[in-house]
Amino acid sequence: MTLDFMPWEASLEAVDRSVPDNHLFTFRLAAPLSFTPGQFAEISVPGIGAFAVSPAFCRDTEVLIACIRRAGRVTSALYTQDIGARLGIRGPFGDGFPLDAFEGHDALLVAGGLGMAPLMSLLDALLRRRDRVGQVTLLYGSRDPSGILFRRELGEIAASGEARVLFTVDFAAELPWEEGAFVCRVGLVNELFSEVSLVAENTTAAVCGPPAMYGCVLEQLAGMGIPAQRIFATLERRMKCGIGQCCHCVTAGTFICREGPVFSLARLRAMPGAI
Ligand SMILES: Cc1cc2nc3c(=O)[nH]c(=O)nc-3n(C[C@H](O)[C@H](O)[C@H](O)COP(=O)(O)OP(=O)(O)OC[C@H]3O[C@@H](n4cnc5c(N)ncnc54)[C@H](O)[C@@H]3O)c2cc1C
Ligand code: FES
Question: How far is the CA of 220 from the centre of ligand 1 (A)?
Answer without folding.
Answer: 27
